[in-house]
UniProtKB/TrEMBL annotation:
Keywords assigned: ATP-binding, Kinase, Nucleotide-binding, Serine/threonine-protein kinase, Transferase
GO molecular function terms attached to this record: ATP binding; protein serine/threonine kinase activity
Homology family: Belongs to the protein kinase superfamily.
Domain Protein kinase stretches: 10-271
Residues reported to bind ATP: 39
Protein name from the UniProt record: Calcium calmodulin dependent protein
Residues of the full protein shown: 1 to 282 of 383
Protein origin, superkingdom: Eukaryota
Length: 282
């Protein structure tokens, strides 16, 4: 992959979304007429760290073709101001919006989605990569269909952005709600942070709200460090099995060394069986 200096092979269209560091636009590859999602990252935001970005892009390119539920990076180029990353276009929107539209997910549907995501997470962890920014805004559906594949997006660059983001999130706005205790404690962190984040996503899928929502970022951070959350209000949890709750508890284990790995999470009985265990059999 040799980066072109000018992104002239693509024409960009409407904005698909924006995150902390980038704007993502729909882009058409002029020669082939194929549509992509083009992530435009302002180089100023990563001054002095461009080499890290290039490394990360190489890794991203290598791993993204190895699992069907990771958004594939197809192309990358840069101008003096921006980096452009062209990914598979996901037209089904963010998991975040589907949760909001539905209120919450039925347990069996949630387990199906989580099984797929955890398999992809186990795959990237086996490749030595930590996502570090798993949340429903970064989990996209490939198509608008109800049963569309879920895809992990916003990959790889988070390691580089991380320190900046931590101060940004705790000082200004945004939600650190998916960040593991060890990130705040600055005690060193790695793959277990992805499992924690998926624990928060699981809670969100089942209840329709997140476990560590507090009035201020400081209170939220303290709740996370103390692992302070409940399966309440009860009416939102009435239909959620003990097995599912146990899965959430395991992922939200404060000590990263005692937290299950992604592979172990897949072996938890809530995800291990595809037959919904909470339906009693005669
Ligand atoms: P950031 O690092 O700034 O959070 P993301 O990669 O998460 O950037 O992209 C921001 C938003 O753009 C996503 O939350 C999503 O709504 C949209 N987006 C990102 N990648 C794609 C894609 N491949 N297809 C469709 N929309 C996308
Ligand atoms: Mg994002």
């Amino acid at each position: 992959m040799s980066p072109a200096t000018v992104p002239c092979q693509y024409r960009t269209g409407k904005t698909l979304g924006s995150g902390t560091y980038a704007i993502v636009k729909e882009a058409i590859h002029i020669k082939t007429g194929k549509y992509y999602a083009c992530k435009v990252i302002n180089k100023k935001l990563m001054e002095g760290r461009e080499h890290m970005v290039r490394n990360e892009i190489a890794v991203l390119k290598r791993i993204s073709s190895g699992n069907p539920n990771i958004v594939t990076l197809h192309d990358y180029f840069e101008t003096s101001h921006n980096l452009y990353l062209c990914f598979d276009l996901c037209t089904g929107g963010e998991l975040f919006d589907r949760i909001c539209a539905r209120g919450n997910y039925y347990e069996a549907d949630a387990a199906d989605l989580l099984r797929t995501i955890f398999k992809a997470v186990a795959y990237i962890h086996a490749a030595g990569i930590v996502h570090r920014d798993l949340k429903p805004e970064n989990l996209l559906f490939r198509t608008p269909a109800e049963e569309a594949d879920i895809m992990i997006a916003d990959f790889g660059l988070s390691r580089i952005m991380e320190e900046e983001k931590l101060s940004l999130l705790t000082e200004v706005c945004g939600t650190p709600g998916y960040m593991a205790p060890e990130i705040f404690l600055k005690s060193g962190h790695s793959k277990p942070v992805d499992v924690w984040a998926m624990g928060v996503v699981t809670y969100f899928l089942l209840a329709g709200y997140t476990p560590f929502d507090r009035d201020t970022p400081k209170a939220e951070m303290e709740a996370i460090i103390a692992g302070e959350y409940r399966f309440e209000p009860e009416e939102y949890w009435a239909n959620v099995s003990e097995t599912a709750r146990d899965f959430v508890r395991a992922c939200l284990t404060i000590d990263p060394n005692k937290r299950p790995t992604a592979q172990e999470a897949l072996e938890h009985k809530w995800l291990a069986s595809t037959t919904p265990h909470f339906v009693s059999t005669p």
